[in-house]
Specification:
Blueprint lengths: L1 H21 L6 H23 L11 H14 L7 H9 L4 E2 L6 E3 L9 E2 L1 H18 L3 E5 L4 H10 L19 E5 L5 H16 L3 E5 L5 E6 L5 H9 L20
Parallel strand pairs: 2-4
Antiparallel strand pairs: 1-3, 4-5, 5-7, 6-7
Length: 257
């Protein structure tokens, strides 16, 4: 019996020794810490490449922003474009004007010719922003989306679940031709910050409603019809108006005999 207990004790000690060997970590604490830091840094860089720099609070996508964009469109009495036929009519009548490619602004080659249109004040915004960006960085901004039809938006929502709907109180403002998307791809961190600050400043003036998309790599900017008018009013105030020509004063007729 004594021999049996000795054998049993020896077996327990062997099992305990094996368990303690397997419980030792493969890396020392210093190596494990260095590995964790490297892994976290790599994950951060991977997210940065995919999503870009963090979004400013003023530019975050939200339901409230979509509601505000649609309210702006309704109050201005702007029609939303249903199909290509209606779009062509608005383009032919000059209600929508083309977004011109200049040294300050380029349009994505993937955007169809008939989709390179916007409301006049939206086109003015694009040109103004492009000029200021070019003056700072000697590089044009790129527009990768402008006017859309409801028909096109419905197709887009079927393959992109993040896209705004074609109907309702949160419908895409692209349908009214008031909105453009400014590409983020290829921007440096300094250029990205400049655009974010530029848009946030105009949002504070209540002339645009911008959002920074994450997965689509663009700035979505809805431009209010108020955008060009403060500048026009200020310009008129500094110019002396021309005098209105007066009718010549004729001498009185002589009394009849």
């Amino acid at each position: 019996m004594r021999r049996f207990y000795l054998i049993l004790l020896s077996a327990i000690l062997v099992v305990s020794a094996q368990a303690s060997v397997h419980s030792v970590p493969r890396r020392s604490s210093a190596r494990h810490l260095a590995y964790s830091r490297h892994h976290r840094r790599y994950a951060h860089l991977r997210r940065l490449r995919y999503y870009g720099p963090p979004v400013a609070p003023e530019l975050r996508v939200s339901r409230d922003s979509l509601l505000k964009q649609n309210l702006e469109i309704d109050q201005a009495g702007l029609q939303r474009i249903e199909d290509d036929q209606q779009l062509q009519q608005l383009e032919d009548r000059g209600i929508l004007i083309p977004l011109e490619q200049t040294q300050y602004v380029t349009v994505s080659p993937s955007l169809k010719e008939t989709r390179r249109y916007a409301r006049p004040w939206t086109a003015q915004f694009v040109d103004d922003m492009g000029r200021e960006f070019y003056e700072k960085f000697h590089k044009p901004i790129e527009v990768n989306s402008a006017v859309r039809t409801a028909e096109q938006q419905r197709k887009l929502t079927r393959r992109n679940h993040n896209a705004a709907p074609a109907e309702g109180e949160t419908a895409s403002s692209h349908l009214a031709g008031t909105t453009v998307d400014i590409a983020k791809r290829g921007l440096t961190r300094k250029q990205h910050k400049w655009i974010a600050d530029y848009l946030a400043n105009l949002k504070q003036q209540d002339v645009i409603e911008p959002e920074e998309e994450r997965r689509q790599a663009c700035f979505h900017v809805m431009v209010s019809q108020r955008y060009p008018y403060p500048v026009a009013i200020q310009t008129k105030a500094t110019v002396t108006p021309e005098p209105v020509p007066q009718a010549p004063v004729l001498p009185p007729l002589p009394p009849q005999q």
